[in-house]
Write a structure and sequence with these properties.
With about 600 residues, this protein is α+β, with helices and mostly antiparallel strands. It folds into five domains: about 90 residues, GIY-YIG endonuclease (3-Layer(aba) Sandwich); about 140 residues, no CATH class; about 120 residues, 2-Layer Sandwich (Nucleotidyltransferase, domain 5); about 160 residues, UvrC, RNAse H endonuclease domain (Nucleotidyltransferase, domain 5), CATH 3.30.420.340; about 60 residues, 5' to 3' exonuclease, C-terminal subdomain (DNA polymerase, domain 1, Orthogonal Bundle), CATH 1.10.150.20. The chain is built from 21 helices and 19 strands. The strands form four sheets. Strands 12, 13, 14, 15, 16, 17, 18 and 19 form an eight-stranded mixed β-sheet that branches. The radius of gyration is 31 Å and the shape is flat.
Length: about 600
């Protein structure tokens, strides 16, 4: 069946499907040819919204989305609010490639003060905080370095508990007067109350108390001729003053609030957020993304996802184009839009920052896209297919006797590190063909069993032999028509030189200076780095016992005898043949000596 016929059949199928979509609120899910959900949306009227994707001329992201749509589903809800909640949950579940959302699991750092069982101060992530521990939580700090520096300074100025566990003796912090010895001594409540009051006062916005404390300490150090410590505190004070100056916001209250606005240009949207706590700007966040036809839907979806994973302040100021009612109901927040006054100035300031960020970084953003999604599109054109997910494999062995493999995943030109996988291999370590065959069979048999996402393209770090191994796997699992295979071939200098087709074994002509060539090289470097790091991880965890297990002819009994008599790898390596012959035969000694030679050379960085 040729491509034109497939497109015509797809269009007829979608046209028939559209006839049955109701004029009701709900969520719709667009699918690609593999049945993978690539976009989730919501609509007041499903019929009108879904039909709009397949009528009229499309541009930008929507054009690419429509080209990839092979089918769609929808879920009818009783209200627009329910459709919005459903959209948020489905986006979390499927992480569709075309949805605009906070794709990583990053949460911003906070400063946390705890009194029980001992007064402590540390930097934490919001998602790791239990509800019972969230009383004295200050943040978020987009600048994690600033948060850590403030905590380090407060820990130096106030004698809080700093060591881990409960030591039986007074530790170093007590002797340098940075702890009251909570683990050993009974500390009067009023002493802790005074420390707590000053720390919480500063974290609640009273800058003067910390500045005075630093000046007091600086004078003490200077009086004692300890000028080095005084200078360190002076530098800390300068840093804190810069932070405090940046945080100033002209507001008449100390309410915790976020300010949100956005700017759209050239098919991109720049979303700007200010995080204001106790009247101070403690951080900001800017997100630049491509947009679909419905900008407000993209913004609302982003905000719904963001505040489902982050602290919700007392109020969130937004521009009038945002549907505050649906957001408030969906995530139990207080989104408000302001038309005048000092709060309106903050919303306008967020707009100015969003605009400046997009305009100042537009060329860099375009360059980044050209090297990622742009390069991925070049690969699509070269191979004549749509490519969302690429999986790349590399094999290696540890000290010549232990084999491992690594798999990395790229989605739409970007690494998807949560999908990376490591494999220990059971076949002979020098057999690249069967190593690749074993690893890929394990990977795709499990994917079929669990019904997880399959790649569009497999890249192997090697030539014909490894390509044939992957082809054998795909044929055995009846996946040869669903997944494309290519090999990244290296030249005699061990550098990537060509891309080889997995079926015809033809070499594709690629410009060595193009984004596509750099993209392929990046994938190859990434899978090699990932696999080598796995080797190092295994080596760092290795013991004498596990090293001996890798040597042919040394079983459990012989291993125990060698360990008991020699006690270390060095002593085993230095032992004479006569000494070793008391425990193992000559052929095993030869294996042992060769292995230890490679092991020690690798460890000492000879190779």
């Amino acid at each position: 069946m040729d491509s034109i016929q497939r497109i015509e059949e797809k269009n007829e199928r979608i046209k028939e499907h559209l006839l049955h979509v109701p004029h009701k609120p709900g969520s719709y899910q667009m699918k690609d040819k593999n049945g993978v959900i690539i976009y989730v949306g919501k609509a007041k009227d499903l019929k009108n919204r879904v039909t709009s994707y397949f009528t009229g001329e499309k541009t930008g992201k929507t054009k690419k989305l429509v080209e990839d749509i092979d089918d769609f589903e929808y879920i009818v809800t009783s209200s627009e609010l329910e459709s919005f909640l459903l959209e948020i949950n489905l986006i979390k579940k499927y992480d569709p490639k075309y949805n605009i959302l906070l794709r990583d699991d990053k949460s911003y750092p906070y400063i946390q003060y705890k009194r029980d069982p001992y007064p402590t101060l540390k930097v934490v992530r919001y998602l790791s905080i239990k509800k019972k521990d969230s009383k004295h939580l200050f943040g978020p700090f987009v600048n994690a370095t600033a948060a850590r520096k403030i905590v380090a300074l407060l820990n130096r100025l106030y004698p809080l508990k700093k060591c881990n566990g409960n030591p039986k003796d007074l530790c170093l912090y007590y002797h340098i007067h940075e702890c009251l010895g909570y683990c050993i001594k009974k500390i009067p409540k009023e002493d802790i109350d005074k420390i707590e009051e000053e720390i919480l006062s500063f974290l609640n916005g009273n800058d003067e108390i910390l500045v005075n404390k630093i000046h007091e300490k600086m004078k003490q150090f200077s009086d004692n001729l300890n000028y080095e410590e005084a200078l360190t505190l002076k530098q800390d004070l300068d840093y804190i003053n810069i932070i405090l100056e940046k945080q100033k916001m002209e507001l008449p209250d100390l309410i915790d609030r976020d300010v949100v606005n956005y700017y759209v240009e050239n098919g991109f949207v720049s979303i700007q957020q200010f995080f204001i706590r106790h009247g101070k700007l403690i951080g900001q966040n800017n997100k630049v993304m491509t947009i679909s036809e419905d900008i407000s839907e993209d913004i609302e979806s982003y905000l719904g996802q963001f505040y489902s994973n982050h602290e919700i302040p007392k109020e969130i100021l937004v521009p009038e184009s945002i549907d505050v009612d649906i957001l408030n109901d969906a995530i139990n927040a207080n989104f408000v839009y302001i038309s005048r006054g000092p709060k309106k100035k903050l919303v306008d300031l967020a707009y100015d920052n969003a605009k400046l960020n997009l305009q100042n970084n537009f060329e860099e953003i375009k360059h980044q896209l050209s090297r990622t999604s742009g390069a991925n599109e070049e690969l699509e054109e070269l191979l004549g297919m749509k490519i969302h997910r690429i999986e790349s494999f590399d094999n290696s062995n540890l000290f010549g006797t232990y084999a491992v493999s690594g798999m990395v995943v790229f989605k739409d030109g970007m690494p998807s590190k949560n999908d990376y996988r490591k494999y220990k291999v059971s076949v002979d370590v020098n057999d690249d063909f069967h190593t690749m065959k074993e690893v890929t069979y394990r990977r795709y048999f499990r994917a079929l069993l669990d019904k997880t996402e399959l790649p569009d393209l497999i890249l192997v770090d090697g030539g014909k032999s490894q390509i044939h191994a992957v082809n054998d796997t795909l044929e055995a699992l009846h996946l040869e028509d669903r997944i494309k295979v290519c090999g990244l071939v290296k030249n005699d200098k061990h550098m990537t030189s060509d891309l080889m087709d997995g079926k015809t074994l033809e070499i594709y002509n690629i410009d060595r200076t193009s984004n596509l060539f750099h993209y392929l090289t990046r994938i190859q470097d990434e899978v090699h780095r990932f696999t080598i790091n796995y080797h190092r991880e295994l080596r760092s965890k290795g013991s004498i016992s596990s090293i001996l297990e890798n040597i042919d002819g040394i079983g459990e009994q012989r291993k125990k005898q060698l360990l008991k008599h020699f006690g270390s790898i060095k002593k085993i390596n230095d032992a004479s043949n006569e000494e070793l012959l008391e425990y193992i035969p000559q052929n095993v000694i030869d294996n042992l000596k060769q292995y230890l030679k490679e092991y020690l050379e690798y460890k000492n960085g000879v190779n």
